[in-house]
């Protein structure tokens, strides 16, 4: 593997693991004798919001209390600690290290990583690890596990997050039992699914694929006959989730790789940025068809996924030039036949949401006359919203957020820098203009709901 001489960033940032101390909630008072009055859906929703706000306020108060505890005084054995809440636990006169309380070790409260973000960017969300003790009591264990993995970025790719969410929801539906006096189509969404969705969103901002799939799932539930037997309705929903995973994830991945591989010609030089599974499968598919070509991998210096991609392609017998960062970008792109990029989402105005650094590669390619081809499943398309900058829909990297700087996970590439988009719903190579997104969505979404 040829390697660039550009110096890669030294050191690996330490992954901070934010932990919030949660004070156990006080048990609610026993209910009055007799049946409780039946609440309307609006009242139930308001009650759930109030409970969620109370939990957040509880965590905030705990952090504030920890931040206001005075430091131990350096004095002799006659010194007395401050009165009230700030009084240290343990024996008087000892001020060496943390002091355990009577009920056990004092929980460690780390600083909120969002406290370093300027107010100007306070609207940009950030993933966080939600303690299990703060999760809603109705959140299913499968959803708890998925949320923790997403918050820790063990599940990072948008499609991987979508599949994990759908499989977790399938477990929820499989174990669901409709209460007496209710119907599945009216009870499942507000009382069961919504707490799962709120928890996942609290762990990490929902990706576009997850949002689209949840919208389709809710529409499918609402289409179920109110008098349908529970077993039949559950089997229908589980079958629908299986079809969604097979058609919109597995089959879509295969078709996109096959269609995009047709664009690669013998003797071509393909440039890609970072590591995206669709680009990787496309290049390997082209190699399997007997084509001979070269690949230039320009890596994201913060993620380093391009290095793994380069190793995989070399093992498949593909000549690879690896660049550890964006240094010398323009001459590398100018020598390419095509630039292949994987997309996180495509908006209604044709702009692309992808890993930070993608816009730089696309702009360099457009200025040198090289076509930029985006590979993206239609489940990642957003037909309701438009984007013209990188601050409206983005995330802050929780591992690289300090008082001096922070990093955004994605950037925005305008549609005029994109020559075409390869999806699973197009024939003849599947290469469509980015502006054709709405027509593509109209072609494929309605059959999934019906």
From TrEMBL:
It is found in: Cytoplasm, Cytosol. Pfam families: IF-2B. The keyword Protein biosynthesis applies. InterPro entries: IF-2B-related, IF_2B-like_C, NagB/RpiA_transferase-like. Its main location: cytoplasm. Keywords: Cytoplasm, Initiation factor, Protein biosynthesis. Residues 1-115 are annotated as: Disordered. Residues 48-63 have a biased composition (Basic and acidic residues). GO terms for cellular component: cytosol. GO terms for molecular function: translation initiation factor activity. Residues 1-33, 64-79, 89-98 have a biased composition (Low complexity). Belongs to the eIF-2B alpha/beta/delta subunits family. Component of the translation initiation factor 2B (eIF2B) complex which is a heterodecamer of two sets of five different subunits: alpha, beta, gamma, delta and epsilon. Subunits alpha, beta and delta comprise a regulatory subcomplex and subunits epsilon and gamma comprise a catalytic subcomplex. Within the complex, the hexameric regulatory complex resides at the center, with the two heterodimeric catalytic subcomplexes bound on opposite sides. This is Translation initiation factor eIF2B subunit delta. It comes from Podospora fimiseda. The lineage of its organism: Eukaryota, Fungi, Dikarya, Ascomycota, Pezizomycotina.
């Amino acid at each position: 593997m040829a390697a660039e001489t550009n110096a890669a960033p030294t050191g690996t940032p330490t992954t901070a693991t934010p932990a919030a101390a949660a004070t156990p909630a006080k048990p609610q008072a026993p209910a009055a004798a007799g049946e409780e009055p039946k609440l309307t859906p609006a009242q139930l929703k308001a009650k759930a919001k109030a409970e969620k706000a109370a939990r957040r306020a509880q965590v905030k108060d705990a952090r504030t209390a920890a931040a206001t505890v005075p430091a131990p005084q350096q004095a002799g054995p006659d010194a007395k600690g401050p009165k009230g809440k700030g009084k240290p636990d343990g024996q008087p006169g000892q001020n060496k290290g943390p002091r355990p309380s009577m009920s056990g070790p004092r929980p460690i409260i780390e600083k909120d990583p969002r406290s370093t973000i300027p107010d100007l960017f306070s609207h940009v969300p950030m993933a966080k690890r939600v303690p299990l003790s703060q999760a809603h009591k109705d959140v299913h264990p499968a959803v708890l596990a998925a949320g923790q993995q997403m918050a820790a970025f063990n599940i990072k790719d948008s499609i991987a997050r979508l599949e994990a969410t759908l499989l977790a929801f399938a477990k929820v539906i499989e174990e669901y039992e409709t209460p007496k006096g209710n119907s599945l189509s009216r009870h499942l969404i507000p009382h069961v699914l919504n707490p799962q969705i709120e928890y996942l969103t609290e762990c990490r901002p929902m990706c576009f694929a997850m949002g689209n799939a949840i919208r389709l799932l809710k529409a499918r539930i609402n289409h179920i006959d109110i008098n349908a037997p529970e077993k039949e309705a559950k089997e229908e929903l589980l079958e629908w989730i299986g079809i969604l995973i097979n058609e919109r994830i597995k089959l879509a991945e295969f078709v996109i790789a096959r269609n995009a591989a047709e664009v690669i010609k013998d003797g071509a030089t393909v440039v890609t940025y970072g590591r995206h599974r669709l680009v990787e499968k496309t290049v390997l598919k082209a190699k399997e068809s007997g084509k001979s070509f070269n690949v230039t991998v320009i890596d994201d210096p913060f993620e380093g996924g391009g290095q793994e991609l380069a190793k995989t392609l070399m093992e498949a017998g593909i000549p690879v030039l690896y660049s550890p960062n964006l240094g010398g970008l323009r001459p590398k792109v100018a020598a390419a036949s095509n630039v292949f990029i994987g997309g996180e989402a495509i908006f209604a105005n044709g702009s692309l949401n992808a890993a930070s650094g993608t816009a730089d590669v696309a702009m360099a390619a457009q200025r040198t006359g090289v076509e930029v081809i985006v590979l993206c499943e239609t489940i990642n398309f957003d037909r309701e919203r438009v984007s013209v900058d990188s601050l409206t829909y983005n995330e802050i990297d929780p591992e690289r957020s300090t008082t001096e700087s922070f990093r955004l996970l994605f950037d925005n590439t305008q549609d005029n820098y994109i020559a075409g988009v390869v999806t699973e719903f197009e024939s003849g190579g599947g290469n469509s203009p980015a502006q054709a997104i709405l027509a593509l969505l109209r072609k494929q979404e309605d059959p999934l709901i019906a």
